[in-house]
Design a protein that fits this description.
It is a single chain. By secondary structure, the protein is mostly helical. The protein has a single domain, classed as Uncharacterized conserved protein DUF2267 (Globin-like, Orthogonal Bundle). 73% of the residues lie in helices and 0% in strands. Helix 1 crosses helix 6. It starts with a helix and ends with a helix.
């Protein structure tokens, strides 16, 4: 028996809600909009730093609804920023979600990395980390 479209979307809405709830707990907030905004900003910054193939591999492991906003505005054939340092990466996150302090931005980024590590395969997470320069990879290590 094939699932109905309502069942299909119900499942992704539920999984996305679980991700946001976990992130809200990590961030210490009761505002789902804040968790969504942080998740979106960090995912877009990470996606833009990865190769096209690796960005697609990561996207394939995201729940359908999160995958939709992960790919929102993506131009895989466009010029990709090469954030070589943690400060550049975090500055881009802050551009996408203004209002975060430097300290809040780093802790929010680490919270998203922990969320990804809990839901994405270890092999895929290793591929993502392998594409990052050491200074950015350190953010992952601090998140563990």
């Amino acid at each position: 028996m094939h699932p109905t479209s309502a069942e299909l979307f119900s499942e992704t809405i539920e999984r996305t809600g679980e991700w946001l709830l976990q992130l809200m707990q990590e961030l210490g907030t009761s505002h789902p909009q804040q968790a969504y905004s942080v998740l979106r900003a960090v995912l877009h910054t990470l996606r833009d730093r990865l190769t096209v193939g690796e960005a697609a591999d990561l996207g394939a492991q995201l729940p359908m609804l999160i995958r939709g906003f992960y790919y929102e505005g993506w131009r895989p054939s466009g010029r990709r920023p090469k954030f070589r340092h943690r400060t550049q990466f975090l500055q881009h996150v802050k551009q996408l979600y203004p209002g975060l302090s430097d300290r809040d931005c780093e802790s929010a980024t680490r919270a998203v990395f922990r969320l990804l590590a809990n839901h994405v395969s270890a092999g895929e997470m290793q591929h993502v980390k392998d594409q990052l320069p050491p200074d950015l990879r350190e953010l992952w290590e601090l998140a563990a």
